[in-house]
Amino acid sequence: MLTAAFIPLLVAGIAGSAAGQISGFNYDESKVPDYKLPDPLVFNSGKAVTSAKQWTSKRRGEVLELFRKEVYGRQPKDAPRLYSEELERSENALGGIAIRRQIRLYLGRRGEQPYMDLLVYQPNDAEKAVPVFMGPNFRGNHTTDHDPAIHAKEYHKGQSVVMEKRGEKAHRWQAELIVKSGFAVATVYYGDIDPDFDDNWKNGWHKYFPMDDPVKPDAWGSIATWAWGLSRVVDYLEIDDTLDHDKVALIGHSRLGKTALWAGAEDERFKIVISNNSGCGGAALSRRRFGETVERINQVFPHWFCDNFNKYNGNEDELPVDQHMLISLIAPRPVYIASATGDEWADPNGEFKSGKGAESVYALFGLKGLGVESQPKPNTPIGDAIGYHLREGPHDVMKFDWIQYIQFAKRHFEIK
Ligand code: GCU
After folding, report:
1. Which of 6, 254, 258 to mutate to test the pocket of ligand 1 (most atoms within 8 A of CB)?
2. What distance in angstroms lies between residue 327's CA and the mean position of ligand 1's atoms?
3. 254 Cβ below 6 A of ligand 1
4. How far is CA 165 from CA 11, 101, 102, 144, 332, in A?
5. How many helices (H) and strands (E) does the chain have?
């Protein structure tokens, strides 16, 4: 079995090929098989859902349950009490515009594992609580900005631990732009929640919430665990009066985009959800089998989903859901789906079509979704309650993406 440790090699190996493609998979639109998507607006009983009330009181729960059971697995029912400790603070960060805080969030006992370290930048001239962009990062908080004061931490590269360069992924976070736009930006390293490799769910927070032996087929995988960890960050935001916990936009890239969508489905305290290049198991429709497939993702990342998801390897048409129903679970909250031209592996058109498939649910609430019939040209943001763009360029988060997310959040949070 391949582990995540091999993935950077695989991905590096295809860097020279066209538009983020791994060979042996379909990238030809004309070869997408015929498929029929399950209708989010039909109850499991076969009856039609005709009102927002029916969706909210019953159908939404059915869909959520199908995803828990068949795709991501179940999170623990109860959240432990959280303890926070401010480890570091400056009133004068990011060249004088921001307050920087580094806060340790303990899940069990103060001073002991498990904990995660939250980095927050927020405007230092705000008169009231500020809206927040919150999201997990891949390689440690110190990689999200060049700021020398951010505590550095090693990240898990498969089973080994490696120290990444400070600021290596600063372009993905744009802290200055975000703070200048009146928002806070808050991030945690996802490996603080669950290191990203297959160890039969022994490490990370699984250690403290042990799995049954044998592991149940609907037990939470790593995506559900990361999502649950992000909900614990919101528990903290709720007790911090300088941050507006009613205006939290959750953002995730790639596997963390999958995580953001699932976190937004499980926890309605995320008021906006942003999926950046999330692809298979995220925004992209599984039935299209374009780029990455269910079988391939389950083989290469056996720890991401619950074991039941393996039933659909090469058998996508039997899934009781598809990813448009994951987008539907965010409704009526605004959701933004972003694709990139250089990211065929993530099936940009399948990501767009997922948004289309969720429009009927938004319509129940009188909301307009994407508002166009086919995928827009590159660098042309569209949509209302469901935002979408296809950015020119690679699988990444770029300034262009952030400019759209900030505009989208300002519009929906009604910020001037
Ligand atoms: C791999 C994987 C994708 C994932 C991506 C990432 O390419 O196949 O599903 O989105 O890694 O998270 O970087």
Report:
1. 254
2. 19
3. yes
4. 20, 20, 19, 10, 40
5. 10, 12
- Residue by residue, pLDDT tens for the chain (416 residues) are 233 333 433 443 343 468 899 999 999 999 999 999 999 999 999 999 999 999 999 999 999 999 999 999 999 988 888 999 999 999 999 999 999 999 999 988 889 889 999 999 999 999 999 999 999 999 999 999 999 999 999 999 988 999 999 999 999 999 999 999 999 999 999 999 999 999 888 888 887 788 888 899 999 999 999 999 999 999 999 999 999 999 999 999 999 999 999 999 999 999 999 999 999 999 999 999 999 999 999 999 999 999 999 999 999 999 999 999 999 999 999 999 999 999 999 999 999 999 999 999 999 999 999 999 999 999 999 999 999 999 999 999 999 999 999 999 999 999 98
Beta carbon of 196 within 6 Å of any ligand 1 atom: no
152 CA to middle of ligand 1, Å?
Answer: 24
* pTM for the whole structure: 0.96
Distance 29 CA to ligand 1 centre (A): 21
Catalytic residues: 254, 395
d(C-alpha 11, C-alpha 162), whole Å: 18
Residue 185 tokens, joined: 């930006």
CB atoms within 10 A of CB 166: 16
Q: How deeply is 90 buried, as exposed, middle or buried, from its count of CB atoms within 10 A (0-12, 13-18, 19+)? A: middle
> What's the CA gap between 137 and 157, in Å, rounded?
13
Distance between alpha carbon 269 and the CA centroid of its chain, in Å?
14
Residue 32 token pair: 């997408």
